[in-house]
Design a protein that fits this description.
4 helices, alpha+beta, three-stranded antiparallel sheet, binds zinc ion
């Protein structure tokens, strides 16, 4: 019996299984695509996570201490995200998530989300922000 190797980089984002993930060619930008044989979901296994999905990680890096967002008012959460998303990232080609968002959606939808870009010199990424 052939032992199936499980490649952790191929984990279906939909059903969370790492087995029965097969190659499904490449997308237009040449990125490898995978297909989950369990739920038939196609995804990019080593695709970069860009922009907004990173908030959480970045936030926890700087504001760790066991607090959850539930402890903060919406205004405070918006303030935090305003700062976090104003930081330019190497992974975003030197752009901040705000800039990427405006570029992708051709619209400053950030106003709709209740958050706003912070000038780089004024960005605070530590608990000092809340004091
Ligand atoms: Zn799946």
């Amino acid at each position: 019996m052939r032992k199936q190797t499980i490649d952790e980089t191929r984990r279906c984002p939909k059903c969370g299984r790492a087995e029965n993930q097969i190659n499904a060619g490449y997308n237009r930008s040449g990125t490898r695509r995978c297909l989950c044989k369990i739920c038939n979901y196609k995804y990019t296994p080593d695709g970069k996570t860009q922009g907004f999905p990173q908030h959480g990680a970045l936030f926890h890096e700087h504001f760790s201490g066991g607090s959850s967002f539930d402890d903060y008012s919406q205004e405070t959460v918006n303030l935090i995200f305003s700062h976090v998303n104003s930081v330019r990232r190497k992974s975003l080609g030197g752009k901040s998530p705000f800039e990427v968002f405006a570029f992708l959606f051709d619209h400053d939808a950030t106003a709709v989300l209740g958050i706003r870009p912070i000038p780089p010199a004024e960005v605070i990424q530590s608990p000092k922000l809340l004091r």
